[in-house]
Specification:
This protein has five helices and nine strands. With 250 residues, it is an alpha+beta fold. A hairpin with a 3-residue loop joins β2 and β3.
């Protein structure tokens, strides 16, 4: 089976009649091909999970075809939008989110973003390119000084009392800008007191999940598998206020 992932996925469409068609198709898919866990129908949305056996919006050989999201978009002739939060099950050090949609023009478009749990030397080249050909963009989990939770401020103070110093680092998005500073998880783990390890991991795990979750307020340019037919708006006539899989913590 290879590397395992925990995906939480959602399908949205324009109305409940169309949603019922998608839901019935998913139940048949789950029975005949691969079980979809926690399959649940809501108001114009369907939620389901992999519970550790993989993800739905990418494929090892071709991230643009051969996956469930692409199949759903191909199956129906109305606007549909699929997105998932994918978290590692084997300490891979990164997660990601995938989105696929079908617009009224009938074109299937997508966007993939990879999220690293910590700053990893070599994850980005000198020119800023990411080392994951299937991803359109990348993030590394961190807090700016202005975003730092009070709990982490207290971790810094306790480390200081113990004779350790937790310092900010240069931001991954601009290695040469001394004005910007950020805190990565390793900045804390390397210097915090032992009693604060679990707290640090908990806070950064929530932050990681937030980064790995797509939201309609994110700006993305969706393209087809050839990188053409670029569009910046979401599939039409879908009420994105009904979304249930959403970021829960900044």
């Amino acid at each position: 089976m290879g590397m395992t992932w925990h995906s939480k996925a959602e399908i949205l469409t324009t109305d409940d009649d169309r949603l019922s068609k998608v839901f019935d198709w998913l139940k048949s898919y789950s029975k005949n091909k691969e079980e979809l866990d926690e399959l649940n129908k809501g108001d114009c949305t369907i939620l389901f999970s992999s519970i550790g056996y993989g993800c739905f919006g990418s494929d090892d050989e071709d991230p643009y075809k051969g996956n469930l999201f692409h199949e759903i978009c191909e199956q129906f002739d109305f606007p549909v939008f699929c997105h998932e939060r994918v978290l590692p099950c084997q300490s891979q050090g990164y997660g990601f989110w995938n989105v696929f949609g079908k617009w009224k023009d009938g074109i299937i478009r997508f966007y993939h973003e990879i999220v690293y749990e910590d700053f990893v030397p070599g994850a980005f080249g000198d020119d800023g390119d990411i080392n994951a050909g299937w991803a359109n963009s990348a993030q590394i989990v961190c807090f700016t000084s202005d975003e730092l939770p009070k709990e982490l401020d207290e971790v810094i103070k306790r480390a200081s009392k113990a004779g350790e110093s937790i310092e900010s680092s240069e931001p991954w998005w601009d290695y040469y800008d001394d004005e910007d500073k950020v805190f990565y998880r390793n900045d804390f783990i390397d210097n915090c007191i032992d009693e604060d390890y679990d707290l640090v991991y908990e806070i950064f795990s929530k932050r990681f999940s937030f980064y790995c979750t797509w939201g309609p307020d994110l700006f993305n340019s969706f393209t087809d598998e050839d990188g053409d037919n670029k569009i910046e708006k979401l599939p039409e006539e879908i009420d994105y206020k009904k979304i249930r899989l959403k970021p829960t913590m900044k």
